[in-house]
Amino acid sequence: MSVANILLQRDSKLDAQGKNDISPLHLACHYDHPNVANLLLEKGASPHLASQNGHTPLHIAARKNQMDIASTLLENGANANAESKAGFTPLHLSAQKGHYDMTNLLIEHGADPNHKSKNGLTALHLCAQEDFIKVASILVKNGANVESETETGYRPIHVAAHFGNLSMIRFLLKHNATIDVKTNQNYTPLHQAAQQGHAHIVSALLEGNASHKARTNDGLTALNIAQKLGYISVMEVLKGLSYDTLAPDNKNWDEKYKVIAPESLQETSFMSDSDDEGGSDALISEQPYRYLTADLMKSLRDDSLPIDVTRDDPIHRQAENFDTDGFNLGRLHFRSFSKFLGGRTRRCYERMQTQRCTYHCATT
């Protein structure tokens, strides 16, 4: 603080932007120095300056749940709906991390709960992914649309089904979400849950009268998907309802194996050296990501579920502490890998280094 005072007395530039267009106020927010942030604002620093990826100081405060700094920024005119390069607002970042008080503060200062990023994500989509019911409640209370669609047609209930979040499924249905709503590829929440091996979600959706007969653009039912991925628990839930045969194979391997997953929120750090919004900053990274490879899916012997094998990088990038812009449909958290593959298929994956997976469907 004393150093900051000395520099300001010597006419240091308040809004000098350095590498990646980072200002002193950005850094004060990032390192949680409220006194320095207050001093800079008192001396006339702009709360509107954006870093290279479009983050304002308020984005950083919202992401890191710095209530005092965020309040001061808003009192000094910070825009609660400021967009990052990929269209994400401070509310997106707050919702993604489950910060209830921060979310409430932003809404009180005019943040739009239905604001969409460039890929169509709203704050409610992000709550659905992380199962943050409390934050979702305040969003819906303030007018968030439970039927908001992403660019590929995913609604919050699809996202909740994909990530196996039963409490969120129930919350959304209670608030009149459509149970059989379809994406651009005609995937319903039931398809999404079956693809991920979430038997408890499949059961809950069926109890809510979800249609087990719905077919994707490729003619797949939820049972078809579960059969070909070997999700036995899902098959047991569905097999009493339908005796579907597998859809005709009229596509080549690459076309059939595309990952059908909702948009997600992974953003370049405002401190990253990369001009690409998918870049990374190793100093403040959190989790590694990888693509599901062709070899992996071949070893699982799945020949019906769409999986994208056009990208086979073993380790592509890392997610940063400000992980919102640059969402990629093919990325997977290592820690969520069992969620993506499902419990039974995960055990196949773990043995894959020494032997080929031998899960088979009776119909294969």
From TrEMBL:
<feature type="repeat" description="ANK">
    <location>
        <begin position="185"/>
        <end position="217"/>
    </location>
</feature>
<dbReference type="Pfam" id="PF12796">
    <property type="entry name" value="Ank_2"/>
</dbReference>
<feature type="repeat" description="ANK">
    <location>
        <begin position="53"/>
        <end position="85"/>
    </location>
</feature>
<protein>
    <submittedName>
        <fullName>Ankyrin-3</fullName>
    </submittedName>
</protein>
<dbReference type="Pfam" id="PF00023">
    <property type="entry name" value="Ank"/>
</dbReference>
<dbReference type="InterPro" id="IPR051165">
    <property type="entry name" value="Multifunctional_ANK_Repeat"/>
</dbReference>
<dbReference type="InterPro" id="IPR002110">
    <property type="entry name" value="Ankyrin_rpt"/>
</dbReference>
<feature type="repeat" description="ANK">
    <location>
        <begin position="20"/>
        <end position="52"/>
    </location>
</feature>
<feature type="repeat" description="ANK">
    <location>
        <begin position="119"/>
        <end position="151"/>
    </location>
</feature>
<keyword id="KW-0677">Repeat</keyword>
<feature type="repeat" description="ANK">
    <location>
        <begin position="86"/>
        <end position="118"/>
    </location>
</feature>
<keyword id="KW-0040">ANK repeat</keyword>
<dbReference type="InterPro" id="IPR036770">
    <property type="entry name" value="Ankyrin_rpt-contain_sf"/>
</dbReference>
<feature type="repeat" description="ANK">
    <location>
        <begin position="152"/>
        <end position="184"/>
    </location>
</feature>
